[in-house]
Design a protein that fits this description.
Blueprint: E1 3-4, H1 12-24, E2 29-31, E3 36-39, H2 42-50, E4 55-56, H3 58-64, H4 85-96, H5 99-103, H6 106-123, E5 125-127, H7 128-133, H8 135-144, H9 155-163, H10 171-197, H11 203-209, H12 219-250, H13 252-260, H14 263-275, E6 281-286, E7 290-292, E8 295-297, E9 302-306, H15 307-310, H16 346-361, E10 364-369, E11 389-394
Helix pairs in contact: 4-11, 6-8, 6-16, 8-12, 9-10, 9-12, 10-12, 12-13, 12-14, 12-16, 13-14
């Protein structure tokens, strides 16, 4: 079995060539420097995500709470739980994250999108991540959690600190991660305590009121979910929108199609999820000696689903290297996961991304890159531009 460093920064063309080579080889690969097994084909990554008994999500708890960090509520969230505890937590959280809760946000998403799109167009040029693709999901998640607007500018530092936990090496990096956990803990516990005293029209109040078979969520369980939701609900949509805007800038014909036909925006965004997924990896831990794709996997091994590779699998997607909005099997990508851990916020993310992009494309007839290169966020598992220097040509 060959070993590859699929996490090393590579030019996109070389990276996709590496994934194609992994898909063509029999069995799984080994991934340096983690020593993990990697599932590069769609069929194998899907099997990994579907079998929660054999491939546990507790791997995320291990990576989220290294010994130097101390307690991290994310390590106790439903993302790291297996059945039956996962089913209980998800049932309770779903009561506050259902269709009615999402529907009441639609008008507010449009209002926030219009405000930041108008601001970006007036500025004419600048970093569109800072001006738009980050600000829309930031404001929405902040309002959902009932946090004060003056805390919103801290969210980016918080999410970066949480994302850096798996890669923090130096004492300074580790202390910054600890500081972020302390700040988030204080801010979110304050909101929980305030909503216990006086419920409001926000998700924290919904979570505290949720009840299934006479059971409710404890404060610590609500805190764990909020620790998970704040960066996950903001970052994934930020990166998805960033990848979408970058694609529009690189493919002016897609911008023209989106401007001419609003229905094209949803098809375009779904293809962005497949072609440039904001979530690149799924971490699992083998609970027993097992076999996947003919490869023996010892109990306790870390196994990664290589989502960015699975989404380009030629066995599933016709012409996978081509960007084809509206393609057949358009929603069979694995970007939102699969099975019991399918992304709980997928519906909200789709709503935010669609409205935000509709709002932006209706205001511009051109997106002109100001730099020939793209600075990507420094993350092992996430994918999106760290900045998007663009000139916006008003419609």
């Amino acid at each position: 079995m060959l070993t590859y460093d699929v996490l090393a920064p590579l030019p996109e063309q070389e990276r996709q060539a590496l994934f194609a080579r992994l898909r063509a080889e029999p069995g799984l690969c080994r991934i340096a420097p983690l020593g993990a097994y990697g599932a590069a084909r769609h069929e194998d990554a899907l099997a990994l995500l579907k079998d929660s008994r054999t491939f546990s999500s507790e791997a995320l708890a291990v990576t989220a709470a290294p010994p130097w960090l101390g307690p991290n509520p994310v390590a106790e969230s439903l993302l790291t739980k297996d059945p039956p505890e996962h089913a209980r937590l998800r049932a309770l959280v779903s009561r506050a994250f259902g269709a009615s809760g999402i529907a009441r946000l639609e008008a507010r998403v449009r209002e926030v999108s219009e405000r930041w799109a108008d601001t970006a167009v007036r500025q004419g040029e600048g970093d569109l991540v800072e001006a738009f693709t980050h600000r829309v999901p930031r404001d929405i998640i902040g309002e959902m959690l009932g946090l004060e607007a003056d805390t919103f500018p801290r969210f980016q530092r918080w999410s970066q600190g949480m994302a850096a936990i798996t890669a923090a090496i130096t004492p300074a990096q580790q202390e910054e991660c600890r500081a972020v956990v302390r700040e988030m803990d204080a801010a979110l516990r304050a909101v929980i305590a305030a909503r216990r005293r006086q419920p409001a029209d926000d998700m924290v109040s919904d979570l505290l009121a949720a009840e299934v078979e006479g059971r409710t969520l404890s404060d610590d369980e609500v805190l764990a979910f909020l620790f998970l939701l704040l960066p996950a609900g903001m970052d994934t949509t930020t990166q998805w929108l960033g990848n979408a805007v970058l694609t529009l800038a690189r493919r002016p014909e897609e911008l023209a199609r989106a401007r001419a036909d609003k229905a094209h925006v949803a098809r375009f965004l779904e293809e962005v999820l497949r072609y440039e997924p904001p979530s690149q990896l799924s971490f699992r831990l083998a609970t027993r000696d097992t076999e996947l794709a003919g490869t023996r996997i010892p109990a306790g091994s870390l196994v990664l689903g290589l989502i960015a590779s699975a989404n380009r699998d030629e066995r599933v997607f016709d012409q996978p290297e081509h960007f084809l909005p509206g393609r057949s099997k358009a929603t069979q990508h694995l970007t939102f996961g699969h099975g019991i851990h399918f992304c709980l916020g997928a519906q909200l993310a789709r709503l935010e991304a669609r409205i935000a992009l509709e709002t932006l494309v209706s205001r511009v007839r051109g997106l002109e890159p100001l730099s020939p290169t793209v600075e990507w966020i420094p993350s092992l598992a996430s994918h999106g531009p760290a900045s998007l220097p663009l000139r916006l040509v008003p419609a």
